[in-house]
Design goal:
By secondary structure, this protein is α/β, with parallel strands linked by helices. Helix content is about 40%, strand content about 20%.
Length: about 200
């Protein structure tokens, strides 16, 4: 089993990279574990609490559970990955069963900020992208998928996303074994990564 960590700023193209990597392996041989599934439940928060809460800070994620689940997968045990609803900011009762596979991909903006996660990754990949490209993707995602108005999305970016990127995400790039510029558009880097993983297997 190989555990690949894929990090990068919000809107950098991580999801596109993950999808392209999956296509390089037989169906059912790759499992995806998303950091975003492990957001702490804030469904009981008031609207004012939600406005103050920083969802882009490492403290917003239940990393202990994520580490525990990776250890269980490594021990060939299935896990029940949580479901998180961005609109209600709550963890759902439903879970997704993830079975151990030859390749486990852990994906998320903050995963390289956690020493215990870094220890468990065989390959660490940072997906890089220009700031203006990331901002456009973030605005589109927040307004179309996460229930924010455009002014709310802009305020969230300026007061939370941008600051947390500078404080936590950008510095975590130094832990990467591979940096993929231009996000999911860099097919050459994705091909090289896929070949490397296949050679390890």
């Amino acid at each position: 089993m190989i555990i690949i960590g894929i990090a990068g700023g919000s809107g950098s193209g991580k999801t596109t990279v993950v999808k392209k990597i999956i296509k390089k392996f037989p169906k059912g041989s790759v499992a995806i574990v998303s950091q975003d599934a492990y957001y702490k439940d804030t469904g009981h928060f008031t609207p004012d609490d939600i406005k103050r809460h920083n969802f882009d800070h490492p403290d917003a994620i239940e990393f202990d559970l994520l580490v525990k689940h990776l250890d269980e997968l490594k021990s060939n045990k299935p896990i029940e990955m949580p479901h998180y609803d961005y609109v209600t900011t709550s963890r759902q009762k439903e879970t997704t069963t993830i079975h151990p596979q030859k390749v486990i991909i852990v994906e998320g903006i903050l995963i390289f900020t956690q020493p215990e996660l870094l220890k468990r990754m065989d390959i660490k990949v940072f997906v890089d992208a220009e700031a203006d490209d990331r901002v456009m993707r973030i605005m589109r995602r927040d307004t179309q998928e996460r229930g924010r108005t455009f002014p709310e999305a802009m305020e969230h970016y300026e007061k939370k996303v941008k600051l947390m990127h500078a404080q936590f995400i950008e510095p975590s790039k130094r832990f990467a074994d591979i940096i993929i510029p231009e996000g999911g558009q860099n097919q050459v880097a994705i091909d090289i990564l896929g070949q490397y993983v296949q050679s390890c297997l």
